[in-house]
């Protein structure tokens, strides 16, 4: 009987000793070979070596736990472009006990690509005061919101399309243009290659009408004409040309050209000058031939005079 009690007591003691043993803490060691790879501007892919005996893994970004995953990889999304993040990973068992953190790894997400640079910029002068621009469209991950137009290095306009009319310019002046694209994230492309154009010359008033030779003298030609019709500016006078060379300016619609050679043909044209000081085109030419000078030499004295008897 003592033997049975002893055996039973021993069994109780053995069982109690077994139950009293403390639960061993989970200590798998930290995950190894953690790798982080940026996948575009908004995501990072993580991968590490599996830890034996682990139930799952915690993922930490910049010191904050951001995810729990059963596998040994994870895709972290919703990140900021062009930003550096630090990641660490730990393993945990089925009781939730967590092991040590892995060594940190850093990764930078891809920067957003801005729009491509506009190409094929063409500048065309269409008047003394306007130059028209055209270019090929740009492309971008965030689309193209608008284009900035620069004249001689200064921004002058923004356009949603691929053309622009630059007006209120100065006649006979050369301007250089460049264009940049801007996307919906306000990212601006590089400037296009430059394109230049020179505004046209300012138009002059119409030429006089009805240029006529009024009369001629041996050393003088008298001209007359009518004012031009339809001039948009006030006429202040006329330039007179002989044989293509300037010979005088008059306010009236007549001109007397003196000091000419007798019996000589001359060609004349007249142009209009307005209150801007701008000269218009020449009129059609007219020709005039000076007259023969008068005979001013007296006749010779008679000779061989004799008396005739009747």
> CATH first level of the largest domain: which class?
Mainly Beta
Second CATH tier, the architecture of the largest domain: Sandwich
* SS content category: mainly beta
Overall 3D geometry?
A: rod-shaped
Q: Gyration radius, to the nearest Å?
A: 51 Å
What composes the largest sheet?
5 strands, antiparallel
Mean pLDDT metric: 89
* Helix run count: 1
Terminal CA distance? 223 Å
Question: Can you offer a commentary on this structure?
Answer:
- The chain is mainly beta.
- The protein folds into 3 domains: 35-108, Sandwich (Immunoglobulin-like); 119-198, Immunoglobulins (Immunoglobulin-like, Sandwich); 209-289, Sandwich (Immunoglobulin-like), CATH 2.60.40.10.
- Helix content is 6%, strand content 44%.
- The chain has one helix at 2-19; strands at 35-38, 44-47, 56-61, 64-69, 73-76, 84-92, 105-108, 119-127, 130-136, 146-151, 154-159, 163-166, 174-182, 195-198, 209-217, 220-226, 235-242, 245-250, 254-258, 265-274, 279-282, 286-289.
- Strands 17, 18, 20, 21 and 22 form a 5-stranded antiparallel beta sheet that branches. It has a 4-stranded antiparallel beta sheet with strand order 4-3-6-7, with no helix packed on it.
- A hairpin with a 2-residue loop joins strand 15 and strand 16 (220-226).
- The longest helix is centred in the N-terminal third of the chain and has 18 residues, at 2-19.
- The protein starts with a helix and ends in a 21-residue tail after the last strand.
- The model is unreliable at 1-23 (pLDDT under 50).
């Amino acid at each position: 009987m003592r033997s049975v009690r002893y055996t039973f007591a021993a069994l109780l003691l053995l069982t109690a000793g077994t139950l009293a043993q403390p639960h061993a803490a989970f200590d798998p060691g930290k995950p190894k070979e953690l790798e982080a790879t940026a996948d575009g501007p908004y995501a990072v892919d993580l991968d590490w070596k599996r830890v034996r005996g682990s139930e799952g893994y915690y993922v930490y970004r910049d010191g904050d736990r951001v995810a729990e995953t059963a596998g040994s990889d994870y895709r972290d999304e919703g990140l900021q472009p062009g930003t550096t993040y630090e990641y660490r990973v730990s393993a945990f068992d089925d009781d939730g006990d967590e092991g040590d953190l892995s060594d940190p790894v850093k990764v930078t997400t891809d920067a957003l690509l801005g729009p491509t640079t506009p190409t094929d910029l063409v500048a065309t002068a269409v008047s003394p005061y306007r130059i028209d621009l055209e270019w090929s469209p740009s492309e971008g991950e965030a689309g193209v919101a608008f284009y900035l137009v620069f004249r001689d290095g200064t921004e002058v306009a923004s356009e949603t399309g691929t053309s622009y009319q630059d007006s209120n310019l100065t006649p006979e002046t050369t301007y250089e243009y460049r264009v940049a694209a801007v996307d919906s994230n306000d990212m601006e492309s590089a400037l296009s290659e430059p394109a230049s154009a020179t505004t046209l010359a300012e138009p002059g008033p119409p030429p006089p009408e009805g240029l006529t030779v009024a009369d001629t003298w041996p050393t003088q030609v008298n001209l007359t004409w009518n004012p031009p019709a339809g001039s948009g500016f006030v006429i202040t006078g006329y330039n007179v040309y002989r044989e293509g060379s300037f010979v005088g300016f008059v306010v009236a619609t007549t001109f007397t050209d003196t000091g000419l050679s007798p019996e000589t043909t001359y060609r004349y044209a007249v142009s209009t000058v307005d209150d801007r000081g701008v000269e218009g085109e020449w009129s059609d030419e007219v020709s005039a031939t000076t007259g023969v000078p008068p005979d001013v030499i007296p006749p010779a004295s008679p000779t061989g005079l004799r008396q005739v008897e009747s």
